[in-house]
From TrEMBL:
Binds 1 Fe(2+) ion. Its cofactor is Fe(2+). Keywords: Hydrolase, Iron, Metal-binding, Protein biosynthesis. It is an enzyme of class 3 (hydrolase). It comes from Salinimicrobium oceani. The gene is def. One of its GO terms (molecular function) is peptide deformylase activity. Removes the formyl group from the N-terminal Met of newly synthesized proteins. Requires at least a dipeptide for an efficient rate of reaction. N-terminal L-methionine is a prerequisite for activity but the enzyme has broad specificity at other positions. This is Peptide deformylase.
Protein backbone atom coordinates (compact mmCIF):
# COMPACT_ATOMS: atom_id res chain seq x y z
CA UNK A 1 0.00 0.00 0.00
CA UNK A 2 1.39 3.40 -0.98
CA UNK A 3 1.52 5.71 2.03
CA UNK A 4 1.30 9.51 1.81
CA UNK A 5 4.68 11.19 2.21
CA UNK A 6 4.86 13.77 4.99
CA UNK A 7 5.60 17.26 3.70
CA UNK A 8 8.07 19.80 5.02
CA UNK A 9 6.59 21.69 7.97
CA UNK A 10 5.07 18.66 9.70
CA UNK A 11 6.39 18.38 13.30
CA UNK A 12 7.05 14.62 12.89
CA UNK A 13 10.00 15.49 10.61
CA UNK A 14 11.60 17.43 13.49
CA UNK A 15 11.29 14.74 16.18
CA UNK A 16 14.20 12.56 17.25
CA UNK A 17 12.69 9.16 16.47
CA UNK A 18 12.17 6.43 19.09
CA UNK A 19 13.70 2.93 19.05
CA UNK A 20 11.70 0.23 17.28
CA UNK A 21 10.87 -2.63 19.70
CA UNK A 22 11.27 -6.22 18.43
CA UNK A 23 7.51 -6.73 18.84
CA UNK A 24 6.55 -3.61 16.83
CA UNK A 25 3.11 -4.41 15.35
CA UNK A 26 2.99 -5.23 11.61
CA UNK A 27 6.64 -4.28 11.06
CA UNK A 28 7.02 -6.46 7.93
CA UNK A 29 3.89 -4.88 6.44
CA UNK A 30 5.15 -1.38 7.23
CA UNK A 31 8.50 -2.15 5.54
CA UNK A 32 6.68 -3.48 2.44
CA UNK A 33 4.49 -0.36 2.33
CA UNK A 34 7.54 1.87 2.66
CA UNK A 35 9.29 0.12 -0.27
CA UNK A 36 6.14 0.55 -2.38
CA UNK A 37 5.87 4.23 -1.35
CA UNK A 38 9.54 4.95 -2.09
CA UNK A 39 9.49 3.28 -5.52
CA UNK A 40 6.19 5.00 -6.36
CA UNK A 41 7.87 8.37 -5.75
CA UNK A 42 11.13 7.40 -7.52
CA UNK A 43 13.15 7.77 -4.32
CA UNK A 44 16.40 6.06 -3.31
CA UNK A 45 15.65 6.22 0.41
CA UNK A 46 12.72 6.66 2.79
CA UNK A 47 12.60 7.08 6.56
CA UNK A 48 9.64 6.28 8.83
CA UNK A 49 9.16 9.96 9.86
CA UNK A 50 8.51 10.66 6.16
CA UNK A 51 5.40 8.47 6.39
CA UNK A 52 4.37 10.06 9.69
CA UNK A 53 5.96 7.57 12.12
CA UNK A 54 8.58 8.87 14.59
CA UNK A 55 10.48 5.54 14.79
CA UNK A 56 14.11 4.67 13.99
CA UNK A 57 13.54 2.89 10.69
CA UNK A 58 14.70 3.74 7.17
CA UNK A 59 15.37 1.90 3.95
CA UNK A 60 17.50 2.55 0.90
CA UNK A 61 17.92 1.23 -2.63
CA UNK A 62 20.79 2.97 -4.44
CA UNK A 63 20.30 1.12 -7.77
CA UNK A 64 19.28 4.32 -9.68
CA UNK A 65 22.75 5.80 -8.96
CA UNK A 66 24.39 2.76 -10.59
CA UNK A 67 23.50 4.23 -14.01
CA UNK A 68 25.97 7.12 -13.48
CA UNK A 69 28.58 6.91 -16.24
CA UNK A 70 31.23 8.69 -14.12
CA UNK A 71 31.44 5.83 -11.61
CA UNK A 72 33.86 2.92 -11.76
CA UNK A 73 32.53 -0.55 -12.58
CA UNK A 74 33.01 -1.57 -8.94
CA UNK A 75 31.15 1.49 -7.61
CA UNK A 76 28.28 0.84 -10.03
CA UNK A 77 28.05 -2.80 -8.94
CA UNK A 78 28.04 -1.81 -5.24
CA UNK A 79 25.26 0.73 -5.76
CA UNK A 80 23.23 -1.61 -7.96
CA UNK A 81 23.06 -4.22 -5.20
CA UNK A 82 22.56 -2.00 -2.15
CA UNK A 83 18.97 -2.49 -0.98
CA UNK A 84 18.61 -2.53 2.81
CA UNK A 85 16.41 -1.87 5.80
CA UNK A 86 18.02 -0.09 8.77
CA UNK A 87 16.37 -0.37 12.20
CA UNK A 88 17.60 1.43 15.35
CA UNK A 89 20.69 2.60 13.47
CA UNK A 90 23.57 4.51 15.05
CA UNK A 91 26.33 6.10 12.98
CA UNK A 92 29.49 5.28 14.95
CA UNK A 93 32.00 7.21 12.80
CA UNK A 94 32.13 9.67 9.92
CA UNK A 95 35.55 10.11 8.28
CA UNK A 96 37.28 11.94 5.45
CA UNK A 97 37.09 15.39 3.88
CA UNK A 98 33.58 16.69 3.31
CA UNK A 99 32.38 16.71 -0.30
CA UNK A 100 29.40 18.33 -1.95
CA UNK A 101 26.61 16.53 -3.77
CA UNK A 102 23.27 17.78 -5.02
CA UNK A 103 20.58 16.35 -2.71
CA UNK A 104 16.81 16.36 -2.76
CA UNK A 105 14.14 14.88 -0.52
CA UNK A 106 10.68 13.38 -1.11
CA UNK A 107 9.35 15.47 1.81
CA UNK A 108 10.77 18.65 0.21
CA UNK A 109 9.87 18.29 -3.48
CA UNK A 110 11.33 20.56 -6.18
CA UNK A 111 14.25 21.75 -4.03
CA UNK A 112 17.74 20.41 -4.70
CA UNK A 113 20.89 21.86 -3.19
CA UNK A 114 24.54 20.94 -2.72
CA UNK A 115 25.10 19.43 0.74
CA UNK A 116 28.50 18.73 2.29
CA UNK A 117 28.97 15.37 4.03
CA UNK A 118 31.91 13.18 5.03
CA UNK A 119 32.58 10.38 2.51
CA UNK A 120 32.98 7.40 4.87
CA UNK A 121 30.76 6.08 7.66
CA UNK A 122 30.60 3.16 10.06
CA UNK A 123 27.03 2.31 11.06
CA UNK A 124 25.50 -0.15 13.49
CA UNK A 125 21.93 -1.27 12.85
CA UNK A 126 19.43 -4.13 12.90
CA UNK A 127 17.88 -5.59 9.76
CA UNK A 128 14.16 -6.42 9.47
CA UNK A 129 14.74 -9.74 11.26
CA UNK A 130 16.51 -7.90 14.10
CA UNK A 131 19.94 -9.28 13.27
CA UNK A 132 22.64 -6.80 14.31
CA UNK A 133 25.20 -5.50 11.78
CA UNK A 134 28.17 -3.11 11.88
CA UNK A 135 29.21 -2.02 8.39
CA UNK A 136 31.30 0.59 6.58
CA UNK A 137 30.06 2.54 3.56
CA UNK A 138 31.59 5.23 1.40
CA UNK A 139 30.75 7.58 -1.46
CA UNK A 140 27.14 7.79 -2.64
CA UNK A 141 26.06 4.83 -0.50
CA UNK A 142 27.31 6.60 2.63
CA UNK A 143 25.58 9.80 1.57
CA UNK A 144 22.17 8.17 1.05
CA UNK A 145 22.47 6.50 4.45
CA UNK A 146 23.51 9.78 6.12
CA UNK A 147 20.55 11.60 4.54
CA UNK A 148 18.05 8.98 5.77
CA UNK A 149 19.77 8.73 9.16
CA UNK A 150 19.32 12.48 9.57
CA UNK A 151 15.55 11.95 9.21
CA UNK A 152 15.44 9.69 12.28
CA UNK A 153 17.42 12.37 14.14
CA UNK A 154 14.91 15.09 13.18
CA UNK A 155 17.33 16.75 10.73
CA UNK A 156 16.55 17.77 7.12
CA UNK A 157 19.08 18.39 4.35
CA UNK A 158 17.97 22.04 4.22
CA UNK A 159 19.34 22.45 7.78
CA UNK A 160 22.84 21.90 6.37
CA UNK A 161 22.65 24.83 3.92
CA UNK A 162 24.25 28.25 4.37
CA UNK A 163 22.07 31.01 5.81
CA UNK A 164 22.02 32.67 2.37
CA UNK A 165 20.75 29.49 0.67
CA UNK A 166 18.14 29.07 3.43
CA UNK A 167 16.86 32.61 2.80
CA UNK A 168 16.70 31.96 -0.96
CA UNK A 169 14.50 28.86 -0.57
CA UNK A 170 12.37 30.14 2.32
CA UNK A 171 9.40 30.98 0.05
CA UNK A 172 9.50 27.56 -1.65
CA UNK A 173 9.62 25.79 1.74
CA UNK A 174 6.65 27.84 2.94
CA UNK A 175 4.66 26.87 -0.16
CA UNK A 176 5.45 23.17 0.38
CA UNK A 177 4.24 23.32 3.99
CA UNK A 178 0.99 24.96 2.76
CA UNK A 179 0.44 22.30 0.09
CA UNK A 180 1.01 24.80 -2.75
CA UNK A 181 2.98 22.35 -4.88
CA UNK A 182 2.31 19.81 -7.60
CA UNK A 183 3.81 16.37 -7.07
CA UNK A 184 3.26 13.05 -8.79
CA UNK A 185 2.94 11.10 -5.52
CA UNK A 186 0.64 11.22 -2.50
CA UNK A 187 1.64 13.74 0.15
CA UNK A 188 0.30 14.69 3.54
CA UNK A 189 0.63 18.38 4.34
CA UNK A 190 0.66 19.98 7.79
CA UNK A 191 -2.74 21.32 8.70
CA UNK A 192 -2.91 25.00 7.90
CA UNK A 193 -3.80 27.07 10.98
CA UNK A 194 -6.99 29.05 10.47
CA UNK A 195 -7.99 32.43 11.85
CA UNK A 196 -4.54 34.03 12.29
Amino acid sequence: MVLPITAYGDPVLRKKAKEVPTDYPNLKELVENMWETMYGAYGVGLAAPQVGLPIRLFLIDTAPFAEDEDLSEEERKDLENLKKVFINATILEENGDEWAFNEGCLSIPDIREDVFRKPEITIEYYDEDFNKHTEKYDGLAARVIQHEYDHIEGILFTDKLSSLKKRLIKGKLSNISKGKINVEYRMRFPEVKKGR
